[in-house]
Amino acid sequence: MARIKDVAAHAGVSVATVSRVLNDNPSVTEETRNRVYAAMTALNYRPNAVARSLRTEATRTLGLIIGDILNPFFTELARAVEDEARLAGYTVIIGNADERADEQDHYVRTLLERRVDGLLICPTAEVTSLIEEVARAGRPLVFLDRTLPGIEVPSVRVESAAAIGELIGHLKALGHRRIAFISGPATLSTGRERTEAFRAAMAAHGLAVPPEYLEAGDFREGSGRAGAARLLDLPEPPEVIFTGDNLMTLGALGEIRARGLRIPRDVALASFDDVPWFVHVDPAITAIAQPTAELGRAAVRMILNRVEGRPAESAALPAQLVVRTSCGETPYGGGPAAARGAGAGDPGQGDERSRS
Amino acid sequence: MARIKDVAAHAGVSVATVSRVLNDNPSVTEETRNRVYAAMTALNYRPNAVARSLRTEATRTLGLIIGDILNPFFTELARAVEDEARLAGYTVIIGNADERADEQDHYVRTLLERRVDGLLICPTAEVTSLIEEVARAGRPLVFLDRTLPGIEVPSVRVESAAAIGELIGHLKALGHRRIAFISGPATLSTGRERTEAFRAAMAAHGLAVPPEYLEAGDFREGSGRAGAARLLDLPEPPEVIFTGDNLMTLGALGEIRARGLRIPRDVALASFDDVPWFVHVDPAITAIAQPTAELGRAAVRMILNRVEGRPAESAALPAQLVVRTSCGETPYGGGPAAARGAGAGDPGQGDERSRS
DNA sequence: TTGTAAGCGTTATCAC
DNA sequence: GTGATAACGCTTACAA
Questions:
Q1: Does residue A46 belong to the interface with chain B, where contact is any CB pair within 8 Å?
Q2: Which CDD domains does the UniProt record give (chains A, B) (predicted)?
Q3: What's the CATH code of the domain at B151?
Q4: Model-level pTM?
Q5: Distance, CA of A303 to CA of A117 (rounded, Å)
Q6: Which of A4, A93, B175, B193 is the most exposed place for a label (fewest CB within 10 A)?
């Protein structure tokens, strides 16, 4: 592999000059510049970013640690982060924590050793001593989607309460009263927030939440399935199951289908977190969409501010209710008090939110 | 940030000794080793992987360039690659080519500059000069999922012909004769292979393929939708639409739903490439599942062989037909002669393939 | 068992 | 406008 020294020799200049050409230093004659370029192509020269980073103390690399790479929410988030970082000339290394604190710490360690310029973390439940240390050391760090109590780090998160309130109002207007929630883990800030918002919205609408209508899930398919099973086995099962994320929705859907129940006639379903295929289940699933891509982009802008020494301010982006047909919104769906004006939209399909 | 020199000073030893401790060199006394460890924790020392890589000429990093990060097939692939690489102590940098040759080349360049130890590429259509150069230079490189004609590089791919043959047999046994295919791009090896296998299987079963039953798609949702639209507009539309990948299935499904058609009564649907939510559409979609995770793991083993100087042999892993209900497999599905018996299983759900 | 010192491929300072 | 050269933080002969 050709080195800068080879290029210099081939072009009949010093390594310093080649370096200047590489870094677009204006104080190089057009003529020598061209000679150097010629030498580079002749030798198939690729600058060694490792050596450069050692010298400049910058890697132009960002580390991103996500909760679960098989969750489409995080995939979309990663894509947005990657796109925005690329625009700014940065590469992203993605670490999949698989919702485990030890895996998360493993990635924090490798990313730190690799000297990434900034760290974007969707933190798992625990406040590990490593995370504390990193935050205390003041290294460029931004929390994404989730936050950690007692740790002072700028963050970008989703403001979910308003949309959840809207959903409960929507359900109540449809005639539903018995609404159950399969929550995310209380150890995660997002889990806590959604549960709190659900409770508050129910109270605000004068609806009761018996304890057995609050199922504790863990943001994974299995818990959605198990939670739905327990709810459906109740002497008085809920009219609506509201799930706390898209994977638990997948699980709940599986359980409902396995029992041969019909949505929304036998039980209605609503989901926090929207994914593209929700439109294609029959009936299409009413969901709360998160501003996922914007979340990722905002986080990159924030971490780059930190990296480049500018201040960074935490932000919360609003989620949005997307009404479809899984809660008895249309007469065809077979909801409890369904009555619907004519010519109102395309029932089978729901909307098509654009997902860039 | 503490350097090895600081640790050495703090422990009262030379940097060489600290380095030996870092690299588990056995020729260090238990006693000094402990002193060094103590110094490391006291100083919160993190070895600088950049400096280490410069010296050792190895980064313990693999580059993976995928076709489209929003396609669940590639996500699952990436996850498997990451898991297997991690087991071997490697980090993976994922580049999303977005099915564009220039993006792909961009990532090849950055990954080369970052001196990754090996490169895993799902190549886009074009044989770019950069890819040719890399292959010619003999750098550790493995093609994943797709191959490039005329380029001698070890590869791991899916053997799809057998499963496609099986699907056509299955459809014929169900009484279908007019079967259309929405293909992937002929510029991609996977696109060509699936189309070829489809043609061969149809011929083998004595079924005709009129040219208008072969829609040219591009492995993205839009082309699936457009292709389905053209097929359904035909004077004699097909009985079955077979789509060449999961995103085109999403598109076709959207078009079918938008027209208010019922599956499989009005038109049957089968998909090459299976994703978890296919089980939850009603009816569940009959699909050909790819050994995605194994594909990723095999590719990592292969590239590590190349990296460590061992020979690597190309491999092809078989895809597998997963029969569900979108092709009229059950009378309940609303096939031509729909009539439903009591208590017969769980039609809405189809099977649940385990996806590790 | 431990230390000294050269060198990895850059960038940047200082001369010229 | 260009060149010599020290330095970045490590690893690894080679010496002691």
A1: yes
A2: HTH_LacI, PBP1_LacI_sugar_binding-like
A3: 3.40.50.2300
A4: 0.91
A5: 9
A6: B175
